[in-house]
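tool=predict chain=A
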Amino acid sequence: MTILLSTLNARFTHTSLGLRYLYANMKQYQAQTDIVEFTIQQNVADILEQIINKQPQIIGFAVYIWNILETTRLIKEIKALRPEIIIIIGGPEVSFEYEQTEIYKLSDYLISGWGDISFYELCHNILNKKPILNKAINGIQPNLDQITMPYDYYTDEDIKNRIIYIEASRGCPFKCEFCLSSLDKTAWSFPLDAFLHEMDKLYQRGLRQFKFVDRTFNLKKEFTSRILNFFLDKIAAFPEEALFLHFELVPDYLSDELKALILKFPHGSLQFEIGIQTLHTPTQTLISRKTDLRKAKENISWLSTHSTVHLHVDLIAGLPAETLTDFAKGFNELWSWQPQEIQLGILKRLKGTPIIRHTEAFGYKYSLDPPYTVLENNDMSFDTLNKMKRVAKYWDLIANSGRFRTILPLFLADDPFDKIWHFSEWLHKRTGQTHSIALDRLFAFMFTYLTEERNESITTVQQAMQEDFMRIGTHGWPKFLGEQPIQWKQRFQNKPKSGQQPKRQQQHN
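tool=predict ok
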């Protein structure tokens, strides 16, 4: 291969949509171009061997916040071994504030921003020995109808075993200062007929999980309606085929027409990711976020109580002017809207984002290493944010996992944030861990905490946790849950086969 396209994904199940866009638009060089994906868990020496064996002249690396350290080490080794190989880097992590970074100094060229067309043009100039004036190149942003779509270049193995990412539109019209999309001027849509033709081909090839990465999928009602109707037609034509769709929604844009379409989808087929981020109005103003919280509450509550959509809603801790008390109040309010999952995140100072303007006024201190997480600010101390990180981990294990669905109302009664905060303190003192806690140990800790620390009724806790344990279907019955129910063995033996839903959604359902 003359040209190699590569990246290090966070895990094997992830696929790189960006590399496939580059490959799809390589024109006459496509036959001598190859895609090779790795993961950040792999040994650098093993990756180096595979790359060198392909004998590329040019390598294009997609660089993200999760792989910049590993990619930097890899490029350093490539340049030590084969300095003649031309290295081109691109991606969000090297599109801003790159001048003093080691990876930029090691590389031959950098493309900032959109690379769909610019990567091809740079390779063309290199291979034809044309003069290239600048090491850093601003990517050309073409009209979306000028970009060849990448979906044919997901392999059958990808479709069978990995997450397939879909993009019906790019950009975002909103200006939330913690997000790189705030730098976009607007949102642009791909030509819809051509896009739906590509979706039909993926469906015919067997794809049943479509993960859309659009930042504002429901912003244009007619556009959204056509896509939803496309998948409803597939469900009607093939009712025996389970289908799972993931979309990111703007929470205060949900028309009656879209609600009517959502209600037509069968149970377990839709997941919406919704970024609330903060319910503290002064913070919203400071970060240029204009979510109508009244409408957001109305829409999320409606989705929770009237539809079968699985809701994944985001909150961010560490935003300016939001204290722990403010955050707790917002968390409790959001939980009352009844989403299945609340994803607790800690603010990150992504390169290029306008959030940096608040650094001095609010006393921000960020980690210098990716993902550049806030260490402290005037409103949340270092100790508070460290504890918040643990709360986020334990919340994910307990609430978001779907494993403790029956016991959760008792566990979180009256003041959910206070309950998970104190459980986090209690559990961390006993384990010193926030991950790799085996399921049987987690059940035991929950039982001990509720019955001994909270003095809840042993019988009440046993009954609820028995139901949770039977639903998860783990081998071995814990003695602390009392006598093994008759249904246990039957339920385990007759456990239905999972459909197209991801495991977490299956556990919630």
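The longest strand covers residues 270-277. Residues 164-368 form a domain with the pyruvate-formate lyase- activating enzyme fold (CATH 3.80.30.20).
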